[in-house]
Structure formats: C-alpha cells, structure tokens
Design a protein that fits this description.
5-stranded mixed β-sheet, alpha+beta, 4 helices, 26% strand, globular
C-alpha cells in the first residue's frame, strides 16, 4: 500500500471508534505497545491509532494515489468527519508513499481538488519518500 489514512491520539480509544466504523483499518495500534513487534524492551508507542489503506497504486504512480485518495475522501466523507471529531483524535493524515528519485530536486504535485477536499475534512497530507530497490516489487 502506498497511500494510507492515519489517525492517532494519546487518549484515542481506537477500538471504540473502529467497532462501528466501515474504514478498512490495517493495523490498529495502541499506546504502550512496542514500536517494533517482538521487542518488548524497546521503545513504546506514545499514541493509539490506525492506518487504513487508501491506494495500492505504486510508488511511481502519485497521480493514481491522488485519484484513489480523492475517491476515498468522497466515499467516506461522513465517517471521516466522525473520525476527526472523535474524542482523543489528535491528527488525521493521508500519507503518500513515493519513490525517492536520484535527482538534485524532487517535486511532487498535489492538485487543488485534493487539497480542498482534505482541508475541508481537516486532514493533513504527508509525503513519505522511499528508496525503493529497482528489483523489488512495490
């Protein structure tokens, strides 16, 4: 998955929210759990929340991710409003995964329509750049 919706909060009761939500949470996480599974002595998560798959378009297909994200916002508008107003939620964002290019500068465009839709729902946009092995599948 290259674009995900992420909701987090230090007092967010993620299980209570997801109990009645049609959003495709994958995975939910809880404050106090190990940041790295299987390493209970390592750092712990400081907040609870979840990720939901928004797009499976590839790291090189930002326009596809943007189209899927716009459709997701339109399809789930009421539920995203409920999420944003849910007690304990501190941040909701769309995180777009893109391939880091071997270039002096990298610019990625987000169309005004997506910015407007996300802003109207109080959803932040994040771009996470990945170094992706050319031989590995997305």
């Amino acid at each position: 998955m290259t674009c995900v919706l992420r909701a987090i909060g230090t007092t967010f009761d993620v299980d209570a929210f997801l109990r009645d939500s049609p959003l495709p949470a994958d995975p939910a996480f809880h404050k106090g759990e190990p940041r790295i599974p299987g390493r209970p002595d390592g750092p712990l998560k400081g907040a609870s929340g979840f990720n939901a798959t928004v797009s499976r378009a590839g790291f090189d297909d930002l326009p596809g991710q943007v189209m899927d994200a716009t459709d997701f916002l339109n399809e789930h508008e009421d539920e995203l409003r409920r999420l944003g107003a849910f007690e304990g939620v501190e941040e909701v964002c769309l995180d777009f995964g893109v391939r880091r290019r071997d270039a002096p500068a990298q610019s990625d465009l987000f169309p005004a329509g997506l910015l407007w839709r996300a802003g109207a729902l109080d959803i932040d946009l994040v771009v996470t750049q990945y170094v992706v092995d050319e031989e590995a599948p997305d």
